[in-house]
Amino acid sequence: MLEHEWRKKATVTRAPSSDAPENTVNAWKFPGGLSNPGEDIGDTAVREVFEETGIKSEFKSILSVRQQHRHPGAFGKSDMYIICRLEPSSFTISFCQQECLRCEWMDLDELARTKHATPITSNVAKLLRYGYREGFDKIDITMREFPAVYAGLFYKLYHRELPESYRNITG
Amino acid sequence: MLEHEWRKKATVTRAPSSDAPENTVNAWKFPGGLSNPGEDIGDTAVREVFEETGIKSEFKSILSVRQQHRHPGAFGKSDMYIICRLEPSSFTISFCQQECLRCEWMDLDELARTKHATPITSNVAKLLRYGYREGFDKIDITMREFPAVYAGLFYKLYHRELPESYRNITG
């Protein structure tokens, strides 16, 4: 059931009143937004998806990282945009009308094919389509948590799943 | 030859005069450092490896991303630490004596096994060992460049390699 639903993906379009450039208005894109200070990557994704679409979900993996410099609206800093794979636990859309014109579950093939999507959205749709057909382990960058050297703190490390046989080295 | 050399990895230890916490002093770690403003991830890695070790190299992939909050020395901000796989084109070490006590090419098995390494170093050594034995395509997060919607700008997108058959969708 969840796997079936993963052929679809909540997407939003920018409202024309936003300050986005012309060719990203009315383009399909994934929900998302800025991290709060001190917020984990996955928590930002889950929060923003809920705020924009009303869909509840759980963080599964990082799919892609974009680094962009001189990006408008990034406060004069270089910008890291991180795309996560989430598993939905609710399916009824109730979307933010300030931020979105439309919000729909969409077939991945259609999203990968349409010209009415930002290039990064098309690209990630193709990546998801690959994962959906051949296994998400092909595309997932998964998370492990480690204690930091600073007492009481933890950090999250994202990398390709390491098979059990490589986690412990003997002899 | 290069693959053989990839069983080894330039590593450095922190000088005891640095302000690192006690248990990271004298621990083996990979060379690295802070990005300059506007600098690409791979360019930072190549530059820092050269500055700390004298080794020339080329960026191949991202291996791992760490997100840490309240990290000392991160200017009160959350910290993203990105570990890259580089291919060396020179092999003679000439290391920075201000930053390192020792700098050596080290066998990956030994680096994965020693207790004298930071946890993240041990973990990435295990990941590299997996990639070295079963193919770097198992662990690599590779880069593609795209034109941004803003005229004349480009961005870099990092994700798992997408097979050719999934890049173009027909019908």
Largest interface: A-B, 57 and 57 residues
CATH topology-level fold name of chain A: Nucleoside Triphosphate Pyrophosphohydrolase
Number of H- or I-type helical stretches of chain A: 5
Question: Based on helices, strands and strand pairing, what is the structural class of chain A?
Answer: alpha+beta
CATH class label of chain A: Alpha Beta
Shape of chain A: globular
Q: What is the count of β-strands of chain A?
A: 7
CATH level-four homologous superfamily name of chain A: Nucleoside Triphosphate Pyrophosphohydrolase
Per CATH, which architecture of chain A?
Alpha-Beta Complex
What's the Cα radius of gyration of chain A?
17 Å
Mean pLDDT score of chain A, rounded?
85
The largest beta-sheet of chain A arranges its strands as 2-1-5
Helix content estimate of chain A: 25-40%
Distance between the termini of chain A: 44 Å
Q: What is the chains' assembly state?
A: homodimer
Tell me the count of domains of chain A.
1
Biggest beta sheet summary of chain A? 3 strands, antiparallel
What fraction strand of chain A? 25-35%
Please provide the ordered H/E string of secondary-structure elements of chain A. HEEHEEEHHEEH
